[in-house]
Amino acid sequence: MAEPSTKKSRTHPPYELLYWPAIPGRGEFIRLAFEASGVSYKDVANETKDGIKAVLACKADDCIIDSDGNPPAFAPPALRVPGEGKHGKTLVLYQTPTILCYLGDRLGLAGEDEVEKHWILSHALTALDLNNETHDTHHPIASIQYYEDQKPEALKRSKDFRENRLPKFFGYFERVLKGNEGQGQGKHLVGGKLSFADTTLWQVLDGLKYAFPNELGAIEKEYPLLFGTFYLSVKEEKGIKEYLASAKRLPYSNGVFRHYPELDRPGK
Ligand SMILES: N[C@@H](CCC(=O)N[C@@H](CS)C(=O)NCC(=O)O)C(=O)O
Predict the structure, then answer these.
(1) End-to-end CA distance of the chain
(2) Which residue, 37, 101, 213, 257, shows the most beta carbons closer than 10 Å to its own?
């Protein structure tokens, strides 16, 4: 068997990410946590030929309990950890924040103490709320329907999102960065080191820059810590920088972050 590539990876179980292939999606929040900490993982659907079958199996509609005693996942992403489940079997976790919490403790991305841990989770959940609201700009009525079948509602939803929701979320995170400036220097939401709240918020900001380039271009300067310091510094973090420059970083396409010019602020 090949030697694991890093010392850290030898001390961790073989983590397996189960997520749809070819899109960043919510899988990206999990990938960034691994990449930031330099711990190896298998991105099953992107790295193995039949990996998609494992993704479908973990959320199969006819599954009540899997052969290792795990409940079925409702929807990907899921994390599979051989040896860490009940009675030494394979553990399967789903829900992005649950996975981030579990990994945060093990990868050193969950703060220095119990208080920081809860703040980090709260901020990650808020960033994920923004992620979900972004999805609803192009699918305000039904996830199962095409965007083109809900376009009038999407136009209205996006206008409100741009004019009211983005300033509310960005203003909130600007205040959090300000409040933690002593330790975090604008680079971290909590304490003085990178957490999964930072990587999660960064991914949402990056996706929004792709989806709403006119809007973000127009308002970013109103949030100097968020976009002038935080966004730029997280992408330079060790592990993240190399990952973003690699072929492993998947392009945005038809996931949560989509660029429909008509949903963005009208251009000049
Ligand atoms: N709250 C869940 C949402 C999971 C989710 O919506 N996953 C999407 C892909 S990003 C999916 O496949 N959804 C299928 C469905 O909801 O039926 C999480 O954060 O993990």
Answers:
(1) 58
(2) 257
